[in-house]
Amino acid sequence: MAVPKRKSSKSVVRTRKRTIKAKVTGTAACPECGAFKELHRACKACGYYKGKQVINVEAV
Ligand SMILES: [Zn+2]
């Protein structure tokens, strides 16, 4: 089995992890209320998804 010849330095590891974290966002502005929401999820602020209200936010 192949084994790394040297230990990765702190700066190499941290640079790699920075680039990974920068790619993962998964959030966008809600088209109904403009609040940040998770992609492919109903908005927690207004309860809308795909232009329809799917969660009754006012009742909670
Ligand atoms: Zn919303």
Question: Main beta sheet: strand number and arrangement?
Answer: 2 strands, antiparallel
Query: What's the tally of helices?
Result: 1
Ligands bound to this protein structure? zinc ion
Structural class, please? alpha+beta
What value does the average pLDDT take? 84
What form results from the Cα inertia axes?
rod-shaped
What's the assembly state of these chains?
single chain
Portion of residues in helices?
Answer: 10-25%
Number of strands: 4
Q: Report, as a whole number of angstroms, the end-to-end distance.
A: 56 Å
Order of helices and strands: HEEEE
Neighbour order of strands in the largest sheet: 1-2
| pLDDT < 50 runs, ≥5 residues | none
Radius of gyration in whole Å, from Cα? 20 Å
β-sheet strand percentage: 15-25%
